[in-house]
Amino acid sequence: MGGAEPPELPLPTASFHGNEVSGFTTARNVLQAHDIHGGVHLHQPPGEPAFAVTPRQLPSTPANFVNRSSEIGRLDVIVAAATPAADPAADPDTNAHAHRGESPSPVVVLTGTPGVGKTSLALHWAHGVCDRFPAGALYVNLRGHDTSLPMPPEQVLVRFLHALGVPAGAVPPELEDRAALYRSVTADRRLLVVLDNAATATQVRPLLPGASGSLTLVTSRNSLPGLVAREGAHRLDLPRFPNEEAVRLLRTVTAAHRAADLPEDLAELARLCAGLPLALRIAAERAAGRPLMVLGELIADLKDRSALWDVLTAESEEETDAMHGVFTWSYRALPPPAARQFRLLGLLPSAEFGLPAAAAVAGSTVAQARRRLDLLVGAHLVEQRAAGRYQLHDLLRAYAVDTVQRTESAQDRRDAERRALAWYLHTADNAQSVLAPFDRYPLDLAVPPEVVPLAFEDHGAAFQWYREEADNLVAATRAAADCGADDLAWRLCAMLRAVHMHQNAFEDWVTTARIGIEAAVRDGSRAGQAEAHESLGKAYFQARRLDEAESSHRVALEIRQAIGDRFGEAVSLNALGLLGLRRRRLAEARGWFEAGAAVFRELGDRRWVALALSNLAETLCELGEPAPAAAALDEALAVFRTLGDRSGEGNALFFRSWALRELGELTRALDSITAALVIADQERNSVWRAHWLAEAAQAERAAGRAEEALRSAEEAAGIQRRLGDRSRAATALDRAGEACRDLGRTELAIRLHQEAAELHRECGDAWQLSGALDNLARALRQTGEHDAARSHWREALSLLTRFEDSRATARDRQIRRELTDPQNLTDPPDLTDPQGPTDPRNRPPEPTP
Length: 849
Prior knowledge:
Elements: E1 11-17, E2 39-43, H1 69-82, H2 92-97, E3 107-111, H3 118-129, E4 137-141, H4 153-163, H5 175-186, E5 192-198, H6 201-204, E6 215-220, H7 225-231, E7 234-237, H8 243-254, H9 263-272, H10 277-288, H11 295-303, H12 317-332, H13 336-345, E8 352-354, H14 355-362, H15 366-378, E9 383-386, E10 389-391, H16 394-407, H17 410-435, H18 459-482, H19 486-495, H20 497-503, H21 506-523, H22 526-542, H23 546-563, H24 566-582, H25 586-603, H26 606-622, H27 626-643, H28 646-662, H29 666-682, H30 686-702, H31 706-723, H32 726-742, H33 746-763, H34 766-782, H35 786-800, H36 806-820
Parallel strand pairs: 3-6, 3-7, 4-5, 5-6
Antiparallel strand pairs: 1-2, 8-10, 9-10
Helix pairs in contact: 4-5, 8-9, 8-10, 9-11, 10-12, 13-14, 13-15, 13-16, 14-15, 14-17, 17-18, 17-19, 18-19, 18-21, 19-21, 19-22, 21-22, 22-23, 22-24, 23-24, 24-25, 25-26, 26-27, 26-28, 27-28, 28-29, 28-30, 29-30, 30-31, 30-32, 31-32, 32-33, 32-34, 33-34, 34-35, 35-36
């Protein structure tokens, strides 16, 4: 019944919890098996096949492409040497295997002055050779010379790995680990990778694929000598068009409108454009739009311009003057509303934007903005990249920024910026109202009268918007702080927690949280500071930087206690409880959860009481106190069912099965976990199903139904592997190994326990690793491999010294009993503990209670 989740931002369902409740997953591969808190509850039909797609990310090929035959010929030689012609029927992996072990994948750097047509050439050529790369094409605009910050390689790697089928939760937090995973994933694939608008070799290097049959095409204004020297990149310097080719481009664009233009006039226009394709296309479009005007008059108008633009400089003053002149010429020809729209686009937080954001910054309707953008696209001042999505070339964006600063008053600029930022904030709030109706942060901020935020009918539409606007929302947070809109900046920070969590966007999450803290301090909002510190704590929690997470959550708690924010105080208590649970400081976690639940009861917030009780119940189960855990879960279940919170209900049923199983009430335990699985199937959520199946295997095994337990564990492991959650996959494998031991399939059990132990070791999960090693030792003992068994038991004992709770003590005693059992001995036992003879665990074993 299980199916694989699409790795790239699958659709949520039921609710969008943010690190509040124990037991749910973001498919994060480094978290502990019963310790992945919060999570986007993903929407996926049962039985759907694993997500597998060949990325085809190249933007559309540019129109009216002219010549560049010499450069295309050189590129063709390079790709021919690097890749054989692809067999369309062949498996891309099979094709790629022939290249493994050869030299690194070739890199080509297209360099040249701004506006010379690097991107146009790269895309034109890339579309022509796609069939030589059966594993697909990856593309990214690195924004190396944008007026905003360049795109960091960490962020690009997340996108590329998603596109290649790696789930968000399987992406490591560190750049080096992400790059290593990317090289591993691409090692068996023949890919074309286009890295557009790079700034430095450092930005490019982590994005080079691992297969020698792949090819990377980089465009940059800089020569990137480091790539040439270290990676052996081929550098192609793209010259400006010679006059005859420049004239040909002008004729190609204007032929249908201006057949009578004199050759000398076209040559003069080409000269004024300095042979730069960007300037030539804009000038040609201007000429084509005025077919009755003599070209000489247009040229005179082009020459008569004022010096409006000092932002950009090129190596050649002629080039800078040419681009500036052409931009000004086309801008002045626009109707006033379109001209205003163009310059106000310079105030948006990013060069790539959607139609509603353009309307918001201009204070217009969407219909008005669409008409104006159509004019700008026709004038080649704006690119349309997809339906409703637009982009400014970095040079044109710089020109728009300069123009709006020189044209609009400071107050008008502030009003326009605030309209755009408010649109992002309130649209994000509307998305949250669909994705997380229980977890919304109250904005306490009115929507400006000229701003119409988007509304969303369902989870899919809301999450699609988040996917399209993720980068812009981060940029908007930064822009709000930069322009003094601190009240918007910290609220945007609070609004972005959930999407950051699901996308595993640690860098963006920490960045926006820190911006939010500073903005809230400037805004004088203590509540905003607490929200931002909480966001930062959750980012560190997800990245397993637990000391920093605790510090942030304690700051949030102190602020909330100081300002009398009782609800926020209880939320912080819950967060600190989750930290204690993650660290297996169970008594500490219990205290935090009990304190939080008491405050929520005082406030009458039934849902939060139920969430805190669910977390407390897991803690009690871990402490070996299943009876009070079951009682807490019965109360929580009643609340979740009353509220219609399916995620909370399923989670409570999961823990209830665990508690009842520990109490020996196996029929009720099986009923509980079966009910949870019904919810997972009804909500079409394979993340839930996979996690809960592991408990089903436990309950079925306890009831003597080993074959059913094995099937449940195998299904769970398969789904978790497709999700990329190595920790939970390891837990499921361990459960499968236990069922195999019950069935007498000892050799298979050994292999399953070995794999589980390896995965837990990779994830750094000492508690789960100790259990897997104990299971492995028991399986080895069954085959008579006593020395190997004792070695694994000893490692398990060394791991257990880190824990002090009752379950750890019981496991320690049980293992020591096995080590002193004469049937398991080939040598005298050595129970020396790393903590020394005074450690109570070195005492003689006591009877198990």
